[in-house]
Predict the structure of ABC transporter ATP-binding protein.
Amino acid sequence: MSAVLEGRELQWQVHARRIVDGASIALARGECVGLIGPNGSGKSSLLRMLYRVLPPTHGRVLLLGQDVADIEGRAFARQVAVLAQESAPAFDTRVAELVMLGRIPHQAGWARDSAQDQAIVREALRQVGAGALVDRSLAELSGGEKQRVLLARALAQQPQVLLLDEPTNHLDIRHQLEVMGLLRRQRLSAIVALHDLNIAAHYCDRLVLLDQGRIVAEGEPAQVLTPARLQQVYGVAAEVDIHPGTGRTRISFTPEAIHG
Ligand SMILES: Nc1ncnc2c1ncn2[C@@H]1O[C@H](COP(=O)(O)OP(=O)(O)OP(=O)(O)O)[C@@H](O)[C@H]1O
């Protein structure tokens, strides 16, 4: 397997604490990898190293075999798009203008937005079910509408790789399924941090489970999401079976085991 994006032995340390500790992760073309783990396990920190906002204490990140530290900013942005947890700009803007920012890495110098750019922006908004929001102002959108618009900006970048930190955050169930379905249908190469383990199991080819900064399991959903591991990492009791309709791994939690 030749990786599009690869993190090798990544470590990020703050003072004496290793927040990410020796994590290696590789993404193949067309693959959707789910990054899962409890709150504070290091998912966002690992993603930040992959999109090179956070320089690793040790380890390297390679994009198509090239160390990302050696790639110029615009070139990186042509290849990698990011939906971070705090992606919304601090200023207000029209939705169309925000999504158009995704085209900047592809535009030359002071070039104006081309008809093609505008068509890409409209299509990206349509894909996330936000076509009707094109003329709205960002400040007046709901949390879920804003999240979909930010995802449209990432899609408008037409990257080789998408790095998404909880893209389904704020979304109602239908939009959660639509956004994840979009990644799958288009065979986008993506690493996606997710909290909903059933969504991760249903849509991801592979899961990487983090616990206290270390990768404790990885593989196909059925290999990773065992009752014993869910108990060990999340401290919850769960039954795992195969959904009769979809054939995918399904988890049923038994909260009584926590609440007594
Ligand atoms: N800049 C920082 N300085 C100190 N500690 C930090 C910093 N950034 C993150 N941490 C700590 O690192 C740990 C991992 O944080 P991170 O956001 O990567 O976890 P996460 O798995 O994405 O969590 P969540 O599921 O809650 O979003 C947390 O305990 C957090 O408090």
